[in-house]
Design goal:
The structure is a homodimer. The first copy, chain A, is of the alpha+beta class and about 625 residues long. Helix content of chain A is about 25%, strand content about 25%. The longest helix of chain A is centred in the middle third of the chain and has 25 residues. The two termini of chain A are about 30 Å apart.
Chain lengths: ~625, ~625
């Protein structure tokens, strides 16, 4: 954590200086975020970081959510929470999945036996693990974060969206009619916003207003969900367990705090048109769970939350208000994210994660456009990037959910051994690290990929250990990446020492800092710190004993802030503690080095040679506006 | 973290259920803690955990401290903060010392050159590092913690102690007269308390009231202290540096946030009786620092805090109200802790740490006596244990402070090479892990030490990695130890598998849970959970694949709480991830196993054979009262 750049401030450094207040609530807010679920909360937390952007964050529920719903947090999501400074708290409270146990029918087909256990997340996939915590807590973390951000944003509860009206003219705002449920008489009001993001769930009003539909085949299969504090002699009650019992499927997900368990209970097939919600009660699900656990006992003592659902894997064909026929002629003004545009089974544990990834993708783009750093066309990439990811996950989810139920797509039986083998295969997918954005406006081509094979263009930046030069602190390079809308340029040194005139790293830094044609000079607003838009970090091949801070190019020891202080945290050396060297681990070309360009949402946008100045500038010029 | 034992509760699990309110403020409070410094804050945070104990926590300052004073946090202190659930936050915010740089005069004796760097904390000394953060932040953490504890304790500011009157009769309270500085007219009030703890600093009113004096030789040497946000080209500005320059000594302590630096600036010798405070100004110290940094530049941009002091290494001969002549005839009612009874140089960075260790030592004893679990004689051990530790540290500090100034006790010059060599030698001391309490009421003899050579009787329990049986979570065994006043009994298994009738571990657990003569049965109050006083944890030699939860003795899967839930976090297996096995690392006798008894303040009280039932019971019977 860095703080006190502009002077000492007493108290909690996570509480950032408050941005200058705008004069009242502006008539037209920059962004209206609808829905205090995971997607909306993450977006609001992201936008709250920008002092010059006005945001309102509304929620239909009249009070904050306290329990229930999703609970699986993928490695990739923990990485993202790390960028928000929330990973430590999350890791401290959450249950950590280490192994998944598989259970199948016993010999007599009357009860269940363990068929094996596998490591849940393959070593090296991420520096973080796969954790479980209630969705309500995640939302609380994010709401806490936005309350400490420069804009001190807070959700407004009891605000039900009645209607969303797109403007006729580009210059006009979107108009959202809201009924205020917490106000006497429940009056309606109209909120005008430059951009509207509907994170309002599977029954999204915003989606309906856009005239898009969730498309997918119903599965006609019912599941009950229980959060249970209870007694059981099931041996893996504190391990994630996938059970295929003679009478159906059961998934056991241990939860935070050491006592709570989430169960997904197979309720069997449903007749099309059957109103399963009418016959299924809490007791019904408990009885089903008891049968599935046999011969082990299962006795609930408290059920803080339960629900039931029919699996519905659906996705909308677009995630914004621009129909195909108009794509490219105008940029979107209204977006949908999360369950509003894709719903999943609970099996692959992805839904909440993908929802937050949606808005992490969108948030920095909205900020760049609203701050005038990028043209509105940048916003076209949200739909282009996220809709295919949702579609891909739905396809995966369908196959996996069937498999967990013991069936192939063709209705063949699948053994738990087969499930177990497949489980390991799909690890990167369920860890959330398989996402790959194709080349496009903000993702470069892969011509120079071989300079850094471990940083696949279009995939998330995979952190690794390094040592900070100034204080030899061993740390994760990726953890310097905060959710602040800035681009990271990781410059991995070439063979020449950084002190040498032959150093390409030094030449790159001097170009970036000094050449009016460099992206840093062209796209950083006057008056901003030199790392205000591009945060350049250097990773040397030399050991920390061989280099002094004063040897670094000026860009790697920049003077910043109102007091003119030196930032000493820009340069790193390979990890000194005997672990794998980042150059080897991520396959960096030691002769030539590499420049790894990382987007504000932690995805690798480009890999370039250190001396590819024209290419670098041209890349950013595609979607950045020269600072004025 | 474990929570929801008594049912689900929404929100932050660190905010524990509030204890039943007492009827108003009791006429006589159980404990009055005086002073919101490190010692007092830690004590108040500890006492706040006990819902049945009434505590008041007063401070003379009219508002909370915001900056300045101490900043060094030893490994041992981070371990202690871990018990309070505060280590993650501390580690996230603090500066981490990895290396210490040594600088000495250059060849011409006109400037300084680096003579070397050494690793600051030897690998393996503690799972935590040596960190730096402002004392004010530590106090804020502790005040936050007590506000979330069952008693929701908070400091009362502007309360100046005028007088402390000891009772004539045992049954009477101590009377403390307080002037309320924040109340109009500053009225006086009398607080009656069963116990009073003066953590009121070097000019302690409580100490004066007890008639004890800080004893020690003045050093007649002045030091300036600066917290600086500034510019410097000194190459180790972000490393802890000990500089012996031609004109004197300078210590550079990098601080939290990446920009702030603490400097200790040598102001030279002082004439006895000289009023150094009158001639020394902020500018004077800055100018001295500039000379000491030469040939490197040093330019402050903001100085949030500065001070000056004459080194005064002093200690009182006792830490409570009982004179030697009365020792053993009555137990203490008033205690002093922290700077009130020992003051140090800043060189060894120990003062704040030792102060908090004082009250961590005292807090659980007060709770045990006030809850009726131990006789008041337990309180005699506070002075007996802590006074010699302070004396020992003062002696060490004197020698070390001279050495850092480049002198031996005999006034000989010391080279920085010699300082560097000595620095490594004393690592365990400055890490805070050298403390060893001698055998006595609450520390057993070392007859069975060889069963667990890595757990020295009288020293702090040194954590190591294990895997939790129920969920294979890799974790530190020592981190199960919360600051909750409970004893930990770590039962390391003998060679026999836990399922075998020959298992001594199983026999021990069955004895503890079932035999009316066992300490668990004798000293745990009726109605309390079976781990309410003794938290027994089993460490198996078997791998987690070889044991099922159901194989464990009942004591290692106890049923607890109002809902009757099983605690699955009592049993561990050796770390499975290829690291060192805890049995080897801590030299546990694999044939016979070992029972390591750990006090509520994390110190090893005893090492016993698993079958030493009589010895175990006899040990606790020395200072525990049978529950009734």
């Amino acid at each position: 954590m860095q703080f006190y750049l502009d002077g000492f401030r007493p108290g909690d450094p996570d509480v950032r200086p408050e941005a200058a207040k705008m004069d009242g609530v502006p008539d037209v807010v920059d962004v209206l975020v609808i829905g205090n679920g995971p997607a909306g909360s993450l977006l609001a937390a992201q936008l709250a970081e920008f002092g010059g952007i006005s945001t309102r964050f509304i929620e239909r529920r009249q009070t904050p959510m306290e329990k229930g719903q999703a609970d699986g947090v993928q490695c990739r999501t923990v990485e993202m929470f790390c960028a928000f400074g929330l990973a430590d708290q999350l890791n401290r409270e959450a249950y950590h999945i280490t192994e998944t146990a598989f259970w199948g029918p016993d010999e007599d087909n009357r009860g269940i036996v363990r068929t094996g256990r596998v490591i849940d997340t393959e070593e090296g996939i991420s520096e973080f693990g796969h954790v479980i915590i209630n969705q309500a807590r995640l939302q609380q973390y994010l709401v806490g974060k936005m309350g400490q951000a420069p804009t001190r944003l807070a959700p407004e509860f009891g605000m039900e969206v009645m209607d969303v009206r797109l403007p006729e003219e580009e210059s006009e705002p979107v108009r959202v009619t809201v009924r205020q449920l917490n106000v006497e008489g429940q009056p309606e009001t109209v909120i005008k916003a430059r951009y509207v993001v509907g994170c309002d769930g599977a029954r999204s009003t915003v989606r309906r207003a856009l005239g898009v539909r969730l498309v997918g085949d119903p599965q006609f299969h019912g599941w009950g969900v229980l959060d249970v504090l209870g007694q059981s002699d099931f041996p893996d009650i504190r391990r994630k367990s996938i059970i295929v019992s003679p009478t159906g499927g059961l998934a056991v997900i241990p939860r935070e705090g050491g006592y709570l368990t989430r169960l997904y209970v197979d309720l069997g097939d449903i007749e099309p048109g059957e109103a399963i919600r009418e016959r299924v009660t809490e007791e019904y699900i408990v009885e089903a769970a008891k049968r599935l656990f046999a011969p082990y006992a299962f006795e609930p003592r408290q059920i803080p939350w339960w629900s039931m659902y029919e699996v519905a894997q659906r996705v909308t064909e677009r995630f914004d208000d621009v129909p195909d026929s108009e794509r490219g002629t105008r940029s979107p003004r209204v977006f949908i994210a999360g369950d509003a545009c894709h719903t999943h089974s609970a099996k692959a544990g992805g839904g909440m994660n993908i929802s937050m990834q949606d808005t992490f993708n969108l948030g920095w783009k909205l900020a760049a456009v609203l701050e005038g750093r990028s043209p509105a066309s940048l916003l076209d990439t949200y739909n282009a990037e996220r809709q295919p990811i949702a579609q891909e996950f739905i396809d995966f989810d369908k196959a996996w959910a069937l498999m967990v139920d013991g069936k192939t797509a063709d209705g063949e039986d699948v053994s738990t051994d087969e499930i177990r083998a497949r489980f390991t295969d799909i690890g990167r997918f369920t860890a959330g690290v398989a996402t790959r954005y194709p080349g496009g406006l903000i993702v470069g081509d892969d011509r120079h990929q071989k300079l850094a094979n471990g940083y696949t263009v279009g995939m998330r930046f995979h952190s690794a250990q390094v040592a900070r030069l100034a204080d030899t602190r061993r740390m994760h390079l990726g953890h310097v990446h905060e959710a602040d809308g800035r681009w990271r340029l990781y410059a991995f040194a070439d063979r020449a020492p950084v002190t040498s005139p032959a150093s390409r790293l030094r030449a790159l830094c001097d170009f970036l800092a000094g050449d009016p044609e460099s992206p840093v000079r062209r796209f950083t607003p006057p008056g901003a710190d030199i790392d205000g838009v591009f945060d350049v970090r250097g990773v040397l091949q030399q050991s920390h004993d061989e280099v002094e801070s004063g040897d670094l190019p000026a860009l790697l020891r920049p003077v910043k802030g109102s007091l003119g202080l030196t930032d000493h945290e820009k340069a790193f050396t390979p990890d000194i503690n005997g672990g794998a060297d980042i150059f080897d681990l991520r396959e960096i070309d030691r002769e030539r080095g590499a420049l790894v360009v990382v987007r504000p949402d932690q995805y690798v946008a480009h890999v370039l040679p250190l001396d590819a100045r024209g290419e670098l500038t041209a890349f950013f010029a595609r979607f950045m506006t020269a600072a004025g």
